[in-house]
Specification:
The complex is a heterodimer of chains A (about 110) and B (about 120). Chain A has no helices and eleven strands. In chain B, about 0% of the residues lie in helices and about 55% in strands. Classes of the chains: A mainly beta (about 110), B mainly beta (about 120). At the A-B interface, strand 4, strand 5, strand 9 and strand 10 of A face strand 10 of B.
Chain lengths: ~110, ~120
C-alpha cells in the first residue's frame, strides 16, 4: 500500500507570511497532484507534477516534485486569506491506475 | 462549479434507514468514483466505475452498494449504517479510470452524512 504523509497537519499564519507544505512517501509515484479543498466544497486540482525535480509555479504557489518522485512540496509566498483551505497531495501509482491521497494540511491565513 | 453535482448536500439517517446518494456529471467522462472523507483519515477510495462497469471495490462493507446505470450517473445506496460511517462522501469523475499524466479528477461538493 502506498502511503503519503503530509506535514504539518495544521498551519495558521498571518496574511503576508510564507508557508511550505510537505508531502512524503517511501513509494515512487508516476505523477503527483495537489488539490485545494475549501469548506463545503470538493477538492479542486491545482497542479500535476510528473518529472523528478520538476518545479511548477501558479501565481504565488510553487510546487516541487522530488528528484526520486517520492516527495513533493507546496510553497505559498505572501499568503492571503483566500489561500485558506485544506491542501491535499495525491500520488498516482506506476500504472497510473490509482490515486492515493495524503491526510491533508489545513491552512488558515488570518487577515 | 466543477460539473459534478451531488445530492443531497446533507443527510441525517438512522441506523435502520435506507437512503441513496446521487452523483451526476455532464463532462463526458468515462470514469466515476466514490470517496469517503472522514475527519481522522485521508480521503479513501471506495468504488471506481469505468464505462458503467465496476473496476474497483476497495474492501467496502456491503452496507454500501453502488450503482452506475450510465456513464453520467452514479448512486451509492446505504442501509443499516453505523455511526462511524458518518463522513463526507465525495463523488468524482475523470476522462479515463487510468489516471494518466494530466488526467484530472473533478470532484462534487459532497454529501455530509450523519448516522444517528
Amino acid at each position: 500500500t502506498q502511503l503519503l504523509e503530509q506535514s504539518p497537519q495544521f498551519l495558521s499564519i498571518q496574511e503576508g507570511e510564507n508557508l511550505t507544505v510537505y508531502c512524503n512517501s517511501s513509494s515512487v509515484f508516476s505523477s503527483l497532484q495537489w488539490y485545494r479543498q475549501e469548506p463545503g466544497e470538493g477538492p479542486v486540482l491545482l497542479v500535476t507534477v510528473v518529472t523528478g525535480g520538476e518545479v511548477k509555479k501558479l501565481k504565488r504557489l510553487t510546487f516541487q516534485f522530488g528528484d526520486a518522485r517520492k516527495d513533493s512540496s507546496l510553497h505559498i509566498t505572501a499568503a492571503q486569506p483566500g489561500d485558506t483551505g485544506l491542501y491535499l497531495c495525491a500520488g498516482a501509482d506506476a500504472a497510473g491506475n490509482k490515486l492515493t491521497f495524503g491526510g491533508g494540511t489545513r491552512v488558515l491565513v488570518k487577515p | 462549479e466543477t460539473g459534478v453535482t451531488q445530492t443531497p448536500r446533507h443527510l441525517v439517517m438512522g441506523m435502520t434507514n435506507k437512503k441513496s446518494l446521487k452523483c451526476e456529471q455532464h463532462l463526458g467522462h468515462n470514469a466515476m468514483y466514490w470517496y469517503k472523507q472522514s475527519a481522522k483519515k485521508p480521503l479513501e477510495l471506495m468504488f471506481v466505475y469505468n464505462f458503467k462497469e465496476q473496476t474497483e471495490n476497495n474492501s467496502v462493507p456491503s452496507r454500501f452498494s453502488p450503482e452506475c446505470p450510465n456513464s453520467s450517473h452514479l448512486f451509492l445506496h446505504l442501509h443499516t449504517l453505523q455511526p462511524e460511517d458518518s463522513a463526507l462522501y465525495l463523488c468524482a469523475s475523470s476522462q479515463d479510470w487510468r489516471l494518466r499524466v494530466n488526467t484530472e479528477a473533478f470532484f462534487g461538493q459532497g454529501t455530509r452524512l450523519t448516522v444517528v
